[in-house]
């Protein structure tokens, strides 16, 4: 019989953040409003938190209180007051709504949404038979188009708008995605390719899709599969498509708004491919590419790949001459070798005009089964110092937990919000978390004291995590009623105490925990933090 763990707070000292106090309703709910003095703040989305993954978020470029959020499989939410109140918006395309959602709120007032289909007349995976593109002028009624339907599976869409002031194609919408002959097939007769479609009337209709990639990938949904296609739009209207296949980052370009494409070019190797099999604690992770163009017309392509040391890093390459040449890959994460960084997302930060990257990072955890969210700003060939933006570490419980294929952020008028997937201890599932900041960039987050339990699925041990920054010593106790199960004392070797990035991780056998209620206590001086957890 498996062991199931539920975790909930019993007592928080004055050191700890207040819990959400909002009232939950099926359609509308309220989250705590951020004080104006707050620089950075994390919160689970919903009350109780809503299960989900693959979040996409978009802030209105001219009204930072107007924010749209979507996540798997078919959740769409909208706020007009900066996230204090959220309204669930229901879209009902005839071909269904199932996964890989991407949303964008344009300055013109249009809301655009792309996602996979769920054809009610077919079974999985055949029901993914087109890319669904939806649009709305009022945020209430959405009108949808089925793009690329031809009897094959259509997967992993991403779209871009031409918002370049001097572009002859300004206003065009471009979608790129992967087409599978037969999903998961091992046959050499089945393959994948990158498809592309454009709209010249704000998504009301799309021209017939064309194939961008010259060489097909396999259909296994793995490193040799052609996936992760994104579109970058230059100031003169030229567009570039980037994707991954066979341990390589590929590119192609079009000078006529995607009517025709050139010859595929291998941009740079992606050592180990886009599928990160070896990352511990998650069912699936990747280094799929994202592309963007800054105000100077510089093209950035960010991605993840294996390093020569066997860990996974975040990289990018940049072109300063309109795509004629790209610099050699530049490493984004500034930690020593050995830790994994995965699921990178890159986009232009509208508050600075420069690209920003965010990603999951395991640099501070020896087990690799916890992660934090880091960010960095890119400026040509230079990278800013990495900044921690998540308040608490993210639990990576095991291969049964799906964290999705991407995370996201959006910025506008001095405000930024990142949307990520994070395991919730009480619910026992990955949920959506929002990380807010104000200013041109997120402030570097100092780690608060924390104690956490990782259920460590598929193992005969539980994994515990503790951090007590600035203290020279602290004690961990685990009790069953009044009975002490175990006690550990941690002492710093440095006179200034434990660092912000210094975490203590330890395993305890599940055999020590028969079914019942247990109390985890972390003490330092005269203050204590208590957390109860169940073993069933």
List the topology elements.
Blueprint: E1 5-11, E2 28-30, E3 40-44, E4 56-60, E5 63-71, E6 75-79, E7 85-88, E8 102-105, E9 111-116, E10 131-136, E11 143-147, E12 153-161, E13 173-180, E14 192-199, E15 210-211, E16 227-233, E17 239-245, E18 248-254, E19 265-269, E20 290-293, E21 299-306, E22 312-319, E23 330-331, E24 341-349, E25 354-361, E26 370-379, E27 382-383, E28 387-388, E29 394-395, E30 408-412, E31 415-424, E32 429-438, E33 450-454, E34 461-467, E35 473-480, E36 483-491, E37 504-509, E38 516-524, E39 527-535
Antiparallel strand pairs: 1-39, 2-7, 3-32, 4-5, 5-6, 6-7, 8-9, 9-10, 10-11, 12-13, 13-14, 14-15, 16-17, 17-18, 18-19, 20-21, 21-22, 22-23, 24-25, 25-26, 26-27, 26-28, 26-29, 30-31, 31-32, 33-34, 34-37, 35-36, 35-38, 38-39
Summarize the structure.
By secondary structure, this protein is mainly beta.
Quickly list its features:
about 525 residues, mainly beta, Neuraminidase, Immunoglobulin-like, 2 domains, six-stranded antiparallel sheet, five-stranded antiparallel sheet, about 0% helix, globular, disordered N terminus
Task: Report on this structure.
- By secondary structure, the chain is mainly beta.
- The protein has two domains: 17-447, Neuraminidase (6 Propeller); 461-535, Immunoglobulin-like (Sandwich).
- The protein is built from no helices and 39 strands.
- Strands 24, 25, 26, 27, 28 and 29 form a six-stranded antiparallel β-sheet that branches.
- It is globular, with a radius of gyration of 23 Å.
- The N and C termini lie close together (10 Å).
- Mean pLDDT is 91; it is low at 1-39.
């Amino acid at each position: 019989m498996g062991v199931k763990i539920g975790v909930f707070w019993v007592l928080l000292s004055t050191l700890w953040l207040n819990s959400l106090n909002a009232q939950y309703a099926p359609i509308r709910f309220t989250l705590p409003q951020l004080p104006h003095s707050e620089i950075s703040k994390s919160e689970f989305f919903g009350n109780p938190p809503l299960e989900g993954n693959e979040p996409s978020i978009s802030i209105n470029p001219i009204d930072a209180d107007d924010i749209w959020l979507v996540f798997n499989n078919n959740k769409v939410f909208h706020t007009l007051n900066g996230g204090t109140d959220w309204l669930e918006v229901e879209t009902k395309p005839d071909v269904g709504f199932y996964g890989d959602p991407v949303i964008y709120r344009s300055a013109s007032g249009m809301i655009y949404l792309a996602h996979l289909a769920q054809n009610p007349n077919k079974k999985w995976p055949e029901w993914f038979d087109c890319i669904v593109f939806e649009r709305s002028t009022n945020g209430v009624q959405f009108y949808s188009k089925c793009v690329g339907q031809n009897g094959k599976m259509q997967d992993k869409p991403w779209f871009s708008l031409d918002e370049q002031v001097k572009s002859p194609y300004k206003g065009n919408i471009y979608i790129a995605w992967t087409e599978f002959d037969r999903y998961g097939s091992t046959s050499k007769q089945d393959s994948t390719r990158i498809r592309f479609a454009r709209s010249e009337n704000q998504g009301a209709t799309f021209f017939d899709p064309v194939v961008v990639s010259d060489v097909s990938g396999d259909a296994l949904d793995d490193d040799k599969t052609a996936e992760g296609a994104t579109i970058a739009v230059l100031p003169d209207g030229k567009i570039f498509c980037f994707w991954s296949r066979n341990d390589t980052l590929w590119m192609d370009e079009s000078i006529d708004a995607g009517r025709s494409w050139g010859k595929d070019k291998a941009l740079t190797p992606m050592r180990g491919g886009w599928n990160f099999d070896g990352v511990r604690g998650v069912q699936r992770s990747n280094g799929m590419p994202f592309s963007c163009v800054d105000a100077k017309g510089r093209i950035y392509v960010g991605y993840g790949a294996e390093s020569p040391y066997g860990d996974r890093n975040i990289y990018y390459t940049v072109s300063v001459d309109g795509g004629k040449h790209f610099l050699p890959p530049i490493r984004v994460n500034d930690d020593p070798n050995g830790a994994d960084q995965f699921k990178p997302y890159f986009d232009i930060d509208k508050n600075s005009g420069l690209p920003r990257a965010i990603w999951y990072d395991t640099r501070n955890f020896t087990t690799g089964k916890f992660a934090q969210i880091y960010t960095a700003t890119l400026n040509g060939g230079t990278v800013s110092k990495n900044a921690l933006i998540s308040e608490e570490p993210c639990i990576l419980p095991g291969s049964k937990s799906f964290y999705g294929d991407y995370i996201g952020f959006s910025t506008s008028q001095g405000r930024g919000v990142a949307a990520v997937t994070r395991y919730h201890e009480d619910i026992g599932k990955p949920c959506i978390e929002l990380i807010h900041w104000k200013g041109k960039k997120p402030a570097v987050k100092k780690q608060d004291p924390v104690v956490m339990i990782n259920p460590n699925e598929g193992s005969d041990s539980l994994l515990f995590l503790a951090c007590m920054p600035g203290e020279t010593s602290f004690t961990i106790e685990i009790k069953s009623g009044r009975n002490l199960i175990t006690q550990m004392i941690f002492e710093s070797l440095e006179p200034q105490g434990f660092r912000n990035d210094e975490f203590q991780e330890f395993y305890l056998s599940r055999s020590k925990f028969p079914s019942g209620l247990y109390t985890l206590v972390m003490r330092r001086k005269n203050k204590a933090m208590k957390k109860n957890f169940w073993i069933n």
